[in-house]
Design a protein that fits this description.
With 299 residues, the protein is an alpha/beta fold. It has a single domain, classed as Alpha-Beta Barrel (TIM Barrel), CATH 3.20.20.
């Protein structure tokens, strides 16, 4: 695989056919750091393992304690029909209520994308960023697009949302933070957000500050950790203030806690090299699940 999840979401849309989800399975299971809120994982990061062993990889994720999969509409998921994928996920014990689609899927094929998302059985759909986002005006028009997509999604019984990478925390040439612009120019009644605390930190933001600042806008969050100088660490192995993050997540009444462990990049935003992880993605996910399932607030 030679492009990142964010790059896929820039380009994406064409690969959505065949991705199917189920949304009404029982969410029972071991308690997480957020109590009864189920523990999930980001679908993109296990794609190389799925190409080698589809069934075995999914079963490994379930055995680790993951209950839900945060889907992204691309291969190998999209090599199966909706009905086939729904059946396979049900069989191994995974639920899904969210699917990420590339910007092009919404901008160029909004009607078919909404129809397909409905067929998947998901409740929330996420639109990736438009390519070549630079200026404050670029981000304001992105917000306008999200409002347009959100209105169409709402009519279909879906909730439109947006997920941050690092670019939303990097100031524009005009001095604005794109995340603030998206919050300011989207309609809260039709556009929600999925906050990724690790990506946010990598982009130079304060995860606690932004979780608190827009606490009423988040429906889900990605639990991704951060350690200066390292490309990736398991959740619980970095410097993030998880006690405050979990408290804010509970206040926000998020529906899911999604572990994410993939590398940010080969270098920092300033160009300094990052140390690669010695762990495989599956081992990082295993350690993350163990920590998240065992976590208890101290005091």
């Amino acid at each position: 695989m030679n492009f990142s999840r964010r790059e896929f979401l820039h380009r994406g849309g064409a690969a959505m056919a065949g991705v199917a989800m189920m949304s009404k399975m029982s969410l029972g299971g071991a308690a997480t750091a957020l109590g009864d809120i189920p523990l999930g994982f980001q679908a993109f990061e296990i794609i190389p393992d799925l190409h080698q062993d589809w069934d075995g990889t999914l079963r490994q994720m379930v055995a680790m304690g993951y209950k839900i999969i945060d889907m992204v509409a691309m291969n190998p998921y999209a090599t199966r029909t909706g009905k086939e994928l729904r059946a396979e996920l049900t069989r191994v014990g995974l639920d899904c209520s969210v699917c990420h689609f590339g910007y092009a899927a919404w901008n160029s094929s909004l009607g078919p994308t909404v129809d397909y998302a409905k067929a998947l059985g998901v409740r929330h759909v996420i639109c990736g960023p438009r390519p070549k986002m630079t200026t404050s005006d670029d981000w304001r028009t992105m917000a306008e697009d999200l409002n347009r997509f959100g209105a169409a999604s709402k009519r279909a019984g879906l909730t439109m949302a947006y997920h941050n990478h690092e670019i939303e925390l990097i100031r524009t040439p005009q001095g604005d933070i794109p995340w603030d612009l998206l919050m300011a120019y989207t309609d809260p009644s039709i556009v929600r957000f999925q906050i990724d605390v690790g990506n946010l930190t990598f982009g130079g933001g304060d995860a606690v500050e932004y979780f608190r600042k827009y606490n009423n806008r988040y429906f889900s969050f990605h639990a991704k950790d951060f350690m200066p100088g390292k490309a990736a660490v398991p959740v619980g192995s970095g410097i993030l203030d998880w006690k405050q993050i979990f408290q804010l997540a509970r206040q926000a009444k998020v529906e899911s806690c999604i572990a994410e462990v993939g590398a940010y990049s080969a270098s920092t935003l300033d160009g300094a090299s990052l140390e690669r992880s010695e762990l495989t993605i599956l081992e990082s996910y295993k350690r993350s699940a163990e920590w998240l399932l065992a976590y208890q607030d101290e005091g």
